[in-house]
Write a structure and sequence with these properties.
307 residues; binds adenosine monophosphate
Length: 307
């Protein structure tokens, strides 16, 4: 099974209560693919500039991620700078420089077209739909978006929603998308717009999956997964994408898709997000082992288990 992701491969400069970094490797597709690579074979489509070197390539290669779909262009890679205060769930964007990402027009190479699983990370919803259309045989498609697209490109987001099986967003994005302060009502309105499953991430409080009634033979009852209370959330950047990587990676590693698989995928998403925030940038994901993932998965089960 292979999982294709399209999204940003970037450089980030981050400031948190625990310290700050200069330009380090970041980007939604970076966090997603590193996280998902512990579960299945990963392929990445992105655009980078001349500042993306062998050193950055090596981070992907070390996890056996196929980066032949990362196009290099003249200019600079996408750059994002952000700051977190005491509230680890909210990043304040200080600077965004699109660089070569501004004219990104993702083309799926022929050799990637048979990928059965696809994740459309947070990019222009028009481009997300274009990639989806280039992969008519994809079995399961996940997608992400952000307030910028929901606020200013609502119609395009609505079209994107008809092209994904699962949407993964955070709670403020869900409320904004549905124009509804009640999360449960917002969830049902969003499901009516297209996806069969909606994963709402609550930052350090876990995540909830809502299902369209009858989809995948499931009831519409939601399921909530925890995350581990972490004492030092060193850098929350990429937690959402690492969650999505664990969630999609686990689903791609399974033969079937049913409620039980979704529930486990929610746990693996939480596990991967919780590791990602323990160090700056992708450092923790780079050092991670499968044994550590299995160990933490057990802790997650214990966290919510009742005799
Ligand atoms: P997350 O913290 O999981 O929401 O994702 C953080 C990552 O998203 C960072 O590494 C950024 O490089 C990347 N990012 C920030 N803003 C954007 C944007 N407008 N489009 C695509 N990627 C972005």
């Amino acid at each position: 099974m292979s999982l294709l992701v399209v999204g940003s491969v970037a450089f980030d400069a981050v400031k948190t209560p625990y310290g700050k970094t200069d330009r380090i490797l970041g980007g939604a597709a970076t966090y997603f693919s590193l996280s998902a690579s512990f579960f299945t074979q990963l392929r990445v489509i992105a655009v980078v500039g001349e500042d993306f070197t062998e050193k950055e390539e090596q981070v992907f290669r070390a996890r056996n991620i196929d980066i032949s779909g990362i196009v290099r262009e003249k200019g600079k890679s996408f750059f994002w700078s952000g700051e977190y205060g005491e509230n680890v769930n909210e990043a304040k964007t200080l600077d965004t420089q699109l660089g070569v990402f501004g004219s990104f027009n993702p083309q799926v190479p022929d050799k990637f077209k048979e990928s059965e699983y696809l994740f459309l990370a947070n990019i222009d919803p028009v481009l997300q739909v274009s990639v989806r259309k280039q992969m008519p045989h994809a079995k399961f498609v996940g997608g992400d978006t952000m307030n910028y697209w929901i606020g200013g490109h609502r119609q395009n987001v609505a079209t994107m929603l008809q092209n994904v099986n699962a949407l993964l967003i955070n709670d403020s994005e869900a409320r904004m998308l549905a124009h509804d302060p009640s999360l449960a009502r917002a969830a049902h309105k969003i499901l009516a717009m297209g996806p069969q499953a909606l994963v709402i991430k609550h930052g350090e409080y876990g995540a909830t999956v809502f299902f369209r009634d009858g989809a995948y033979g499931m009831s519409k009852h939601p399921f909530r997964a925890p995350t581990l209370p972490i004492e030092a959330v060193t850098d929350p950047t990429g937690a959402g994408d690492s969650f999505a990587g664990g969630f999609m990676g686990y689903i791609a590693s399974q033969q079937n898709l049913n409620r039980e698989i979704f529930k486990r995928a929610m746990f693996y998403g939480g596990v991967m997000g919780s590791f990602s925030v323990e160090a700056f940038g992708t450092e923790r994901l780079q050092k991670l082992t499968r044994e550590e993932i299995d160990e933490r998965y057990k802790i997650f089960r214990e966290l919510t288990h009742l005799e």
